[in-house]
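User: Predict the structure for this protein chain, please.
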Amino acid sequence: MKIKFSIQTSLILMLPCWTIAMQAVTVKEIGPKPVISMAKDSLTANADFLNMHYGLFVHYSFPGKKYQYGSTDWIDGSAIQSLDELADNFDAEDLAQKAAAMRAQYVIFTTSHANMNVLFPSKVMDKYLPGHTSKRDVLTDMIKAVKAKNIRVMFYVHPSDGHDFTKEDQERVGYNDGPPYTKYNDFINAYYAELVDRYGKEVSGYFMDGGVPKRILDLPRLRKTFLSRQPGAILIQNGGLNKTVNDYGAFETLDPPYPAARWVVCKPITGEWWAMKNSVIICPELAYRYTVLQASVTNRQGGGVNWAFGPHPGGKWEIGVASFCERIGVLMDKSGPSIFNTHPSKAYVSLDKQKLVGLSYAATESVDGKKTYLHLFLPPKNNVINLPPPADGRKFTSAKLLSNNHPVKVHQTAEGVTLTIGKSDRWDDVDTIIVLQ
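Assistant: Here is the predicted structure, written as structure tokens:
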């Protein structure tokens, strides 16, 4: 994964974050936590993914050679010298705490990135590419820490990563052999078979980078390698969707005006995917609103949005990351039942590519369809908001503010719905949530 920011975009997004980064926020975990059960088949996996709205995407990697986009560094900017140095200094508990603070439903964690240096002692890698495995089983430690917080885990994988290998390593695995790339496919499927056999009972799915090119990869074989061992695995493809392998698509870009998507969207909150010497340039308030928007999109596939950042070794973070997690966690707590365990609203519909910038409101609804959660982003100057008629023709008879249960006056006609809050109430600066029934 790679990303580039323009100076203009960075400045627009950076200014409010410094204020947030300076605030100390106490986060309390509230409410019952869901019990994580692993999907046993594709139908259950589909339902699981549909209920995922909000995740954390983590890169923590050592390419082992010069990589043009950089990689994880020590917090002082010095380079990591070996895969074992990276692995031995990974703080699993600290990562889990950050994921819990931001209220992430799931974590996508990189098993390896450029040059395929994997974060566990892999027998397959020892056979094909000696020197590409860590002694420490970072993946097991991460899974235990994150799942102890009742947060799901998925793995980032890159089946076509041979293009990042040295020439010598490419020759070892047959990457330059040409079609049908039998040796390379033998290697990559043996590796993923080992990965799934080792961790499949603990992870919900796999995020595949690299576009799964059919010129190189035996796509039906790759899908079978995953699903024959883990029938309920969620298979996501970055930057496209080839259903010969994957079931869901994903985007790794998100820029102003922040359009919604039916696919899961992944976006770094700092200048890169991995920890270098950057700082937060996406404010938690903006990230929260986009999370709401993604939950509201009609015909969404699932997954919502992943806000991406990675740790430095030793449990250190780039400037603003800890404050981002705390602040967005507070906002997620205030949203109560209006994001998690909801469906897109049928009364007030958000479509694919809906722009967040300039959007007055978005809406979700309870699973039973009885409650509509109106998320008001841009309130009027007085205490009255006028809405169009519900798209599905439903009639609202009552409303209240989610924050304090104060009643909201409802007046509905053929022309639309008028909502009036009490004189003692005020619109929230980030999101006024009104429960309509």
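The longest strand covers residues 152-157.
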